[in-house]
Each structure stands twice: as structure tokens, then as C-alpha cells.
Write a structure and sequence with these properties.
The chain has about 280 residues and is mainly alpha-helical. It is about 60% helix and about 5% strand.
């Protein structure tokens, strides 16, 4: 095997530092997901008669739901014994350890609370938010690539990456699984935004959310076959934790799509506008 035939990946995860301040690619891309997503969501909400204030509120719910859900998901799904024995470690988000399935649960709960408080139609909210969640997910997986983490299994495909920063005794070409996921989720963003652009307020209730959940987690189930397991206990499982957590979400997405097929009606956002911002 000639490692010169593959792509050498040796990107520094840190962009620059100023004293104790360290700016990393992952953090920048994570933040960009929210910044760009807020602008896109504002365009969507205003086009359908809502206000920028609604977007400001939902963005706050999204940030809290994403961070708490992703962190608790990692601690409870992948290393519960360690974190339950050392609960203070759960707070150390800067040391890494976020799970996309946990983020999904956190976002769903946060948006349910948002919908209850603001009296919005829950599925209408989900249909619009998944557009920007897809974009954010693509950027986060790109951040994982910059960190040389969530790596793929060894392979001899011509586009394999040699992850230099793994410091392996013998360099091994691997699937760039992070890049696979990033490209797929970006494609999902293009699909969802394209459908919304075509139908706008006439978008069938639940269509975008159902497509997002079904396609995203179906791909996630499949891509896990070319990814290294994150924890040792997964080596003893027929399907790893990422796949087991994906299956219920695929089923949920299919149920939503079946409902859309049976009753393809558009949803209205609901909520109440005050006289000052109506």
C-alpha cells in the first residue's frame, strides 16, 4: 500500500489563539450554523407573515436545546457509567463530547416548548426549522473533519484520507466519514429549501420534517457501517449506538410522511401578533 496515493489530512483544529483565547474551526463552524441559519429562518418567517422577533425567540430555544440535548445525549448514550459517577464532567462541554441524536431530542423538546408558549402549530415550526438544522448539521460535520474526529474505517478507495493527527504508528487510509455526512446533509438542506421555495405557505404539513428525519437518519444508519465505533462497548453490538438510535427516528419520519400522503394539507403558523409588530 502506497500512502502517497491517498489524501493527507493534517489540518490544525485551532485557527489562532490570543493568550488564553483559542479559536477553533469546530467552534467557528458551530456558531456559523446558528448565524447563517437565523438569517435564512428570518427570510422564511417574514415571507410567511411572521416577524423577526419570532426568529430571535426560537433561536434562543434552539441554542439551549441543541447544546443541552447534544451534551446529555453523549453522556447518557455513550458513557453513562463514567458521567453519572462524575456528574461535574457533564458540564465540561469544551472538552468535547456532543451527540447528534441527543441534539435531535433536545431540539424537538425545545421547539415543543416554544410552540406551546407562542401558540404556534408544532409541525409548521418543525417543517421550517429542519431547513436550517440541515445546514447547521453540514457545518458541524465539517468541524468534525477539521478536528480529525469521528473517523471512518480503513479503506483503499482512492479518496481515502490519511489522518496524520491520529498519530498512528502505521498511517492508515480511512473513509472520510465526516465529509460523507457533511455533503449528504448539505444536499438535504438544498432539497428542503428548494421545496419550501416552491410551495412556501402551501407546503404540506409535516412534509419537510418527515423528509428530513427519514433521509437524514437512514443515511446515518448506513454511513455507520464505514465509521469507527466511538466507544469500545459498541464493538460487541450487531448495530452500533448511532444505528440503534437512528432506527426510531426513521420510523417516526416514515409515519409523518404517511400522514402527509393521507392528508396533504398546508399548515398555518398560528401564534398571535401584537398590534406593534403585526
Amino acid at each position: 500500500m502506497n500512502i502517497l496515493n491517498y489524501i493527507t489530512w493534517n489540518v490544525d483544529p485551532e485557527i489562532f489563539s490570543l493568550g488564553p483565547l483559542h479559536i477553533r474551526w469546530y467552534g467557528l463552524l458551530f456558531a456559523l450554523g446558528f448565524v447563517i441559519g437565523q438569517r435564512i429562518l428570518t427570510k422564511i418567517y417574514v415571507a410567511e407573515g411572521r416577524t423577526e422577533g419570532d426568529v430571535d425567540v426560537i433561536t434562543l430555544y434552539m441554542i439551549i436545546g441543541t447544546v443541552i440535548g447534544a451534551r446529555l445525549g453523549h453522556t447518557l448514550f455513550y458513557a453513562p457509567d463514567y458521567y453519572l459517577s462524575n456528574p461535574i464532567e457533564i458540564l465540561k462541554i469544551w472538552e468535547g463530547g456532543l451527540a447528534s441524536h441527543g441534539a435531535t431530542v433536545g431540539i424537538l423538546l425545545a421547539l415543543w416548548l416554544f410552540s406551546k408558549r407562542m401558540k404556534f402549530d408544532y409541525l409548521w415550526v418543525l417543517d421550517r426549522i429542519v431547513i436550517v438544522v440541515a445546514l447547521g448539521g453540514a457545518l458541524i460535520r465539517l468541524g468534525n473533519l477539521m478536528n480529525s474526529e469521528i473517523i471512518g474505517r480503513p479503506t483503499d478507495v482512492p479518496w481515502a484520507f490519511i489522518f496524520v493527527r491520529l498519530n498512528e504508528a502505521v498511517p492508515v487510509p480511512r473513509h472520510p466519514a465526516q465529509l460523507y455526512e457533511s455533503l449528504m446533509v448539505f444536499g438535504l438542506f438544498v432539497l428542503l429549501y428548494g421545496l419550501w421555495s416552491k410551495y412556501r405557505e402551501a407546503t404540506p404539513r409535516g412534509l419537510l420534517f418527515g423528509l428530513f428525519v427519514t433521509l437524514l437518519f437512514s443515511f446515518r444508519f448506513l454511513v455507520e457501517f464505514v465509521k469507527e465505533n466511538q466507544e469500545a462497548f459498541e464493538d460487541e453490538l450487531t448495530f452500533n449506538m448511532g444505528q440503534l438510535l437512528s432506527l426510531p427516528l426513521v420510523i417516526l419520519g416514515l409515519v409523518i410522511l404517511f400522514m402527509v400522503w393521507r392528508n396533504p394539507k398546508p399548515a398555518r403558523p398560528g401564534g398571535r401578533l401584537t398590534e406593534s409588530n403585526a
